[in-house]
Design brief:
single chain, alpha+beta, H-NOX domain, Arc Repressor Mutant, subunit A, 2 domains, 5-stranded mixed sheet, two-stranded antiparallel ribbon
Length: 346
């Protein structure tokens, strides 16, 4: 099934590359297998897709690394890793302001999950940072380790080591071989197999003044951050249109006016935003139908049912469109895929 587009800021890939080198692991083949080029990642406007990111982290988990990789990532994190957001947060007046900026603009870092600041209802003196998954596809455990390690580290740096978590919850299985490294790194109790990854700390730390505070720089870099997010949202607009089409097509609705309505924009705005992203409504519609049809064919659904699910009035129209998109009839496409799988198994 087609899923929402998720991505992570490119410079984090540079941090992963540096960490691999530091641990004596050659990063080139791992990045190449994941389809990631290191050069473009220097630019924060170049982002890593969730599939490439997941492939890279999976390959890393398979490496014979003695240290916990996710914890080791923190060694190479710098405020500029997160582009303007990192600098804007670092120049905040207090730790609470720092965290508030990180929460508000967290999509700069990644759209795979949402960061939130929560007060502990059972204890008014505690609060916690929590990361809740947006992406329904799970990531390797190393990512949860990295999230906690990176944010504990940058909060320690911002407060000159005054930030001290009281408890860490990690949404990952219990590590049988190196659990002791977690308590040593975080300096507190670590609980595994939690529903979400979170950092619990004393609420009074939110008022901690930052020596790096610079109101003018904070405002300037916050404006840059807002511009970045605006550009990111424009680039992701085709994905939003595609997501609504996936939902609407089985109901027989595929018109631009209906999609614009559910996205709360005018039809003209729909056209303009797609044009800004370098595509058209027809291209997004055809691409969505093709990807859905290919997925359904590989799952073995009948052709007449696929025609209905992709919003066609009948099988003949669907078959003509599918051949135009792929060069194969629906049945021919499925037979070719089966043949390739059989050859791969032999």
């Amino acid at each position: 099934m087609i899923s929402q587009t998720f991505s992570t800021i490119g410079p984090l890939g540079v941090v992963i590359w540096q960490t691999l080198e530091d641990l004596g692991i050659a990063p080139e083949p791992l990045f190449a297998d994941a389809g990631i080029e290191i050069g473009p990642l220097m630019d924060p406007y170049n982002r890593i897709s969730d599939s490439a990111f997941r492939g890279l982290l999976t390959a890393i988990e398979e490496q014979p690394i003695d240290r916990v990789f996710g914890l080791h990532l923190a060694k190479f994190i710098h405020p500029t890793t997160f582009y303007s957001l990192g600098v804007a947060a670092y120049c905040s007046a207090t730790l609470g302001d720092y965290i508030e900026k990180m929460v508000r603009y967290y999509s700069v870092v990644t759209t795979n999950d949402v960061m939130s600041l929560e007060r502990d209802s059972g204890n008014s003196e505690l609060c916690c940072l929590t990361w809740t998954a947006n992406n329904p596809e799970p990531f390797p455990s190393v990512r949860e380790d990295g999230i906690a390690a990176i944010f504990v580290t940058i909060l320690r740096v911002a407060t000159q080591n005054a930030f001290a978590p009281l408890r860490i919850f990690l949404a990952r299985p219990f590590p049988e071989d190196n659990a002791d490294q977690y308590a040593s790194f975080f300096g507190c109790e670590v609980q595994f197999e939690a529903p979400t990854t979170s950092l619990v700390f004393d609420k009074q730390l939110l008022e901690f003044p930052l020596v790096s505070a610079d109101p003018d720089l904070a405002r300037s870099y916050e404006q840059l951050t807002e511009q970045y997010i605006t550009k990111l949202e424009k680039a992701d607009f085709p994905a939003r249109v595609r997501n609504e089409l996936v939902r609407l097509l089985p109901t027989g609705v595929s018109g631009k006016d209906a999609v614009a309505k559910v996205l709360c924009v005018s039809t003209r705005t729909l056209y303009n935003r797609l044009e800004e992203a370098g595509t058209t409504y027809r291209e997004v519609l055809d691409d969505t139908r093709r990807l859905l049809a290919e997925d359904y064919l590989l799952k073995g659904l009948p052709v007449n049912e696929i025609a209905y699910l992709t919003g066609f009035s009948d099988t003949a129209n669907f078959s003509r469109a599918f051949k135009k998109w792929t060069g194969h009839s629906p049945i021919g496409f499925r037979e070719l895929a089966i043949s390739r799988d059989e050859q791969a198994d032999t």
